[in-house]
Amino acid sequence: MWKEIKAKPTKYNNTIFRSRLEVRWAIFFDELGIKWKYEPEYDDVEFGGCRIFYKPDFYLPDYDLWIEVKPSSIIHLSDGEIRKIVGWAKEYFEILVLSGPPRILIEDSKAHYLYTYNPQKKKVNRPQPYMRWCECPKCGKIDYRPGGGIPCSCDKTCYPEPAVDLFDEELPEPEGHKSQRLKNACNKANNHNFDVLSEKGSSNN
Questions:
Q1: Can you tell me the distance from the alpha carbon of 177 to that of 183, in angstroms, rounded to the nearest whole number?
Q2: Is 124:82 a contact under the CB 8 Å cutoff?
Q3: Which of 23, 106, 155, 172 has the largest CB neighbor count within 10 A?
Protein backbone atom coordinates (compact mmCIF):
# COMPACT_ATOMS: atom_id res chain seq x y z
CA MET A 1 0.00 0.00 0.00
CA TRP A 2 1.34 3.42 -0.93
CA LYS A 3 0.70 6.67 0.90
CA GLU A 4 -1.13 9.39 -0.97
CA ILE A 5 1.08 12.49 -0.93
CA LYS A 6 0.03 16.05 -1.67
CA ALA A 7 0.93 17.05 -5.22
CA LYS A 8 4.17 19.02 -5.52
CA PRO A 9 5.19 20.66 -8.82
CA THR A 10 8.50 19.13 -9.90
CA LYS A 11 10.90 19.68 -12.81
CA TYR A 12 12.12 16.71 -14.85
CA ASN A 13 13.42 16.55 -18.39
CA ASN A 14 12.98 20.31 -18.88
CA THR A 15 9.29 19.91 -18.00
CA ILE A 16 7.40 21.15 -14.95
CA PHE A 17 5.07 18.40 -13.78
CA ARG A 18 2.15 19.02 -11.48
CA SER A 19 3.18 16.20 -9.15
CA ARG A 20 6.04 13.86 -8.35
CA LEU A 21 3.74 10.94 -9.07
CA GLU A 22 3.57 12.07 -12.71
CA VAL A 23 7.37 12.36 -12.76
CA ARG A 24 7.68 8.76 -11.55
CA TRP A 25 5.58 7.61 -14.50
CA ALA A 26 7.68 9.70 -16.89
CA ILE A 27 10.81 8.02 -15.51
CA PHE A 28 9.12 4.62 -15.87
CA PHE A 29 8.36 5.34 -19.52
CA ASP A 30 11.91 6.59 -20.12
CA GLU A 31 13.43 3.43 -18.65
CA LEU A 32 11.34 1.34 -21.04
CA GLY A 33 12.10 3.52 -24.06
CA ILE A 34 8.49 4.69 -24.34
CA LYS A 35 8.16 8.17 -25.86
CA TRP A 36 5.77 10.50 -24.06
CA LYS A 37 4.33 13.98 -24.23
CA TYR A 38 3.17 15.73 -21.09
CA GLU A 39 -0.22 17.47 -21.19
CA PRO A 40 0.00 18.11 -24.96
CA GLU A 41 -3.70 18.77 -25.52
CA TYR A 42 -6.27 20.89 -23.72
CA ASP A 43 -9.78 20.40 -25.01
CA ASP A 44 -13.36 20.56 -23.90
CA VAL A 45 -15.24 17.26 -23.85
CA GLU A 46 -18.93 16.53 -23.75
CA PHE A 47 -20.67 14.53 -21.06
CA GLY A 48 -24.27 14.70 -19.90
CA GLY A 49 -25.03 17.59 -22.19
CA CYS A 50 -22.22 19.74 -20.74
CA ARG A 51 -18.83 20.75 -22.13
CA ILE A 52 -15.98 20.21 -19.67
CA PHE A 53 -12.39 21.43 -20.08
CA TYR A 54 -9.86 18.67 -19.58
CA LYS A 55 -6.19 17.93 -20.18
CA PRO A 56 -4.92 14.31 -19.75
CA ASP A 57 -1.47 13.92 -18.18
CA PHE A 58 0.33 11.99 -20.93
CA TYR A 59 0.11 11.05 -24.56
CA LEU A 60 2.18 8.11 -25.84
CA PRO A 61 2.56 8.69 -29.61
CA ASP A 62 3.85 5.20 -30.44
CA TYR A 63 0.75 3.70 -28.81
CA ASP A 64 -1.70 6.47 -29.75
CA LEU A 65 -2.69 6.31 -26.10
CA TRP A 66 -3.86 8.98 -23.68
CA ILE A 67 -3.04 8.51 -20.00
CA GLU A 68 -4.42 10.01 -16.80
CA VAL A 69 -2.43 9.48 -13.59
CA LYS A 70 -4.26 9.41 -10.27
CA PRO A 71 -2.92 8.90 -6.71
CA SER A 72 -5.64 6.36 -5.89
CA SER A 73 -8.13 4.00 -7.55
CA ILE A 74 -10.96 5.30 -9.73
CA ILE A 75 -13.42 4.23 -7.03
CA HIS A 76 -12.16 7.24 -5.04
CA LEU A 77 -12.52 9.74 -7.89
CA SER A 78 -15.14 12.45 -7.81
CA ASP A 79 -18.06 12.50 -10.21
CA GLY A 80 -16.46 15.44 -11.99
CA GLU A 81 -13.17 13.57 -12.52
CA ILE A 82 -15.00 10.56 -13.92
CA ARG A 83 -17.02 12.78 -16.25
CA LYS A 84 -13.81 14.24 -17.71
CA ILE A 85 -12.28 10.79 -18.30
CA VAL A 86 -15.45 9.39 -19.86
CA GLY A 87 -15.84 12.51 -21.99
CA TRP A 88 -12.27 12.20 -23.28
CA ALA A 89 -12.80 8.53 -24.14
CA LYS A 90 -15.89 9.52 -26.11
CA GLU A 91 -13.95 12.16 -28.05
CA TYR A 92 -10.65 10.29 -28.52
CA PHE A 93 -11.76 6.64 -28.22
CA GLU A 94 -9.37 5.48 -25.48
CA ILE A 95 -7.74 6.61 -22.24
CA LEU A 96 -5.81 4.57 -19.67
CA VAL A 97 -6.09 5.59 -16.01
CA LEU A 98 -3.01 4.68 -13.96
CA SER A 99 -3.50 4.65 -10.19
CA GLY A 100 -0.60 5.13 -7.80
CA PRO A 101 3.11 4.79 -8.62
CA PRO A 102 4.65 2.35 -11.15
CA ARG A 103 4.75 -1.12 -9.60
CA ILE A 104 4.30 -4.81 -10.34
CA LEU A 105 0.64 -5.39 -9.50
CA ILE A 106 -0.63 -8.34 -7.49
CA GLU A 107 -2.88 -10.75 -9.37
CA ASP A 108 -6.25 -9.37 -8.22
CA SER A 109 -5.34 -5.68 -8.38
CA LYS A 110 -7.71 -3.44 -10.33
CA ALA A 111 -5.44 -0.39 -10.02
CA HIS A 112 -5.30 0.53 -13.73
CA TYR A 113 -8.42 0.92 -15.88
CA LEU A 114 -8.87 1.37 -19.63
CA TYR A 115 -11.79 3.45 -20.90
CA THR A 116 -12.77 2.81 -24.52
CA TYR A 117 -15.48 4.13 -26.83
CA ASN A 118 -17.81 1.91 -28.87
CA PRO A 119 -18.62 3.81 -32.10
CA GLN A 120 -21.34 1.31 -33.10
CA LYS A 121 -23.27 1.81 -29.86
CA LYS A 122 -22.10 5.43 -29.59
CA LYS A 123 -21.23 5.02 -25.94
CA VAL A 124 -18.23 4.55 -23.66
CA ASN A 125 -17.77 0.97 -22.51
CA ARG A 126 -17.49 0.03 -18.86
CA PRO A 127 -13.88 0.59 -17.76
CA GLN A 128 -11.67 -2.48 -18.25
CA PRO A 129 -9.85 -3.33 -14.98
CA TYR A 130 -6.70 -5.39 -14.40
CA MET A 131 -4.70 -3.47 -17.02
CA ARG A 132 -0.97 -4.20 -16.79
CA TRP A 133 2.19 -3.22 -18.61
CA CYS A 134 3.90 -6.32 -19.95
CA GLU A 135 6.97 -7.36 -21.95
CA CYS A 136 7.31 -10.08 -24.56
CA PRO A 137 10.12 -12.45 -23.48
CA LYS A 138 11.02 -13.12 -27.13
CA CYS A 139 10.97 -9.75 -28.90
CA GLY A 140 11.10 -7.42 -25.89
CA LYS A 141 8.04 -5.41 -26.97
CA ILE A 142 6.33 -3.42 -24.21
CA ASP A 143 2.57 -2.95 -24.23
CA TYR A 144 -0.46 -2.92 -21.93
CA ARG A 145 -3.02 -5.69 -21.65
CA PRO A 146 -5.81 -6.87 -19.30
CA GLY A 147 -4.29 -9.31 -16.84
CA GLY A 148 -0.77 -8.89 -18.22
CA GLY A 149 1.01 -11.84 -19.82
CA ILE A 150 2.47 -10.80 -23.18
CA PRO A 151 1.50 -7.97 -25.56
CA CYS A 152 -1.57 -8.86 -27.62
CA SER A 153 0.31 -8.39 -30.89
CA CYS A 154 2.83 -11.04 -29.83
CA ASP A 155 0.15 -13.73 -29.51
CA LYS A 156 0.37 -14.53 -33.22
CA THR A 157 3.89 -13.35 -34.05
CA CYS A 158 6.03 -14.61 -31.17
CA TYR A 159 3.70 -17.26 -29.76
CA PRO A 160 1.59 -18.58 -32.66
CA GLU A 161 1.38 -21.95 -30.93
CA PRO A 162 1.17 -22.74 -27.20
CA ALA A 163 4.59 -23.44 -25.69
CA VAL A 164 5.11 -27.04 -24.55
CA ASP A 165 7.68 -28.84 -22.46
CA LEU A 166 9.72 -31.97 -23.36
CA PHE A 167 6.65 -34.12 -22.72
CA ASP A 168 4.41 -32.02 -24.96
CA GLU A 169 2.58 -30.62 -21.94
CA GLU A 170 1.33 -27.08 -22.51
CA LEU A 171 3.27 -24.51 -20.50
CA PRO A 172 1.66 -21.53 -18.76
CA GLU A 173 1.64 -18.27 -20.68
CA PRO A 174 4.74 -16.18 -19.95
CA GLU A 175 4.23 -13.66 -17.16
CA GLY A 176 5.56 -10.71 -19.10
CA HIS A 177 3.99 -8.32 -16.58
CA LYS A 178 6.54 -9.52 -14.04
CA SER A 179 9.64 -9.16 -16.23
CA GLN A 180 12.91 -7.95 -14.74
CA ARG A 181 12.93 -5.04 -17.15
CA LEU A 182 9.59 -3.82 -15.80
CA LYS A 183 10.75 -4.35 -12.21
CA ASN A 184 13.89 -2.31 -12.90
CA ALA A 185 11.82 0.50 -14.43
CA CYS A 186 9.52 0.53 -11.38
CA ASN A 187 12.50 0.62 -9.01
CA LYS A 188 14.15 3.41 -10.97
CA ALA A 189 10.98 5.50 -10.90
CA ASN A 190 10.24 4.96 -7.23
CA ASN A 191 13.82 5.45 -6.03
CA HIS A 192 14.41 8.65 -7.97
CA ASN A 193 16.19 11.29 -5.90
CA PHE A 194 14.10 14.43 -6.24
CA ASP A 195 16.77 16.46 -4.44
CA VAL A 196 18.98 16.11 -7.52
CA LEU A 197 17.76 17.90 -10.62
CA SER A 198 17.36 15.32 -13.38
CA GLU A 199 17.46 16.24 -17.01
CA LYS A 200 17.62 12.66 -18.31
CA GLY A 201 14.74 11.26 -20.32
CA SER A 202 12.92 11.04 -23.60
CA SER A 203 12.09 14.19 -25.45
CA ASN A 204 8.57 15.38 -24.80
CA ASN A 205 8.50 17.53 -27.87
A1: 9
A2: no
A3: 23
- Residue-wise pLDDT for 151-175, tens only, equals 988 888 888 776 665 566 666 778 8
3-state secondary structure of 74: helix
Pairing outcome for strands 94-99 and 65-70: parallel
Torsion angle of the four alpha carbons 140, 170, 129, 204, in this order, in degrees rounded to the nearest 10: 0
Q: What is the pLDDT of residues 52-90, one digit of tens each?
A: 778 899 999 999 999 999 988 787 888 888 888 888 888
**Which residues make beta-bridge pairs with 133?**
144
SS3 180: helix
CA distances from 201 to 12, 145, 180 (A): 8, 25, 20
**What 3-state class would DSSP assign to 115?**
strand
